[in-house]
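DM from R.C. (forwarded with permission)

"hey, sorry to bug you on a friday — could you get me a structure for this? deadline for the figure draft is monday and I only need the backbone to look sensible"
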Amino acid sequence: MRIKTVFKYLAGAIICLLFLVVTAWLIWVPSARGPGYVFIAEWGERGTLPGQFIDPTGIAVTGNEVFVSDARNARIQVFDLEGNFTRQFGGKGDGPGELGRPMNLSIMNDEIFVADYWNDRIQVYALDGTPRRIIGQAGSGTGEFNSPGGVAVGPGGDLFVADFYNQRIQHLQADGEFIEQWGDTGEVGIRAGEFNYPTDVAITTDGTLYVADGYNDRVQVFSSTGQFLRKWGGPFAINIKGPFNGWFTTVSSIAIGPAANVFVTDFYNNRIQKFSADGAFLSTFGTKGDGPGQFDRPLGVAVATDGSVFVADFGNHRIQKWRLKR
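My reply, with the result:
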């Protein structure tokens, strides 16, 4: 009789556990709600010649051109939408127009903004590569940077910078004058408005700011007035990593598509995830590998006006192009 009672309670516990697991799965592992993507083309290989890369890190698209941060070669390379090389600019150094390790890129008003990671500054060029100005310097004070990973330009020209080692996002005027920041300088945190090595930022036409909160494995969103709105990535979006839909294992870049969808590079999961503006999971593409349509730690993402997605395939030293399934 006693053994039967034990088995009865054990069976009940197992059923309850299974119920909790299924419930948690349904809540925290969403199904795809949008169409998938198909691989179209790739270009590049490891090297120093035009059209070759050593660790491509950032990417931006405007009109009919693709701009790529060729990190270890300390240059920006420019291609047409089919991957044909057109020009390059930059060069290794810390002088005006020179680069340390260019990271994520942003384009606004016929200028390209480069997060110059090793030089602790933002460099601004004309789209033809002519140096325009330098914003910031090394440090932890306001308007200073410690390895910026990404930059976005707001509708009014203000700058938003992912200040990686300073654990903050800085909001600056177009001339670099400090306005405000999110996150406590040098302090890692998992609560809303705190960061764990932020890597990139993207901003919509209405001023909504999306932050790739890199090692917190999540995305955070702020209003145009600086108020925290929401976050997503794993259970409660509190630095719980994983390979499931809507979860991340290091967020390295973020981009806004033409329909206000949000594209996120999921670095160690070797994929791109797509979300609606409010964080609902839509689809994912990419797997680990070096074949067509596979990634080795994708680090940068950009979306063209026709919806084509371009990815800086960091470990494979190449660029990939994808489009929606038809």
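R.C.: lifesaver. The chain has a mean pLDDT of 93.
me: no worries. The longest strand covers residues 37-43.
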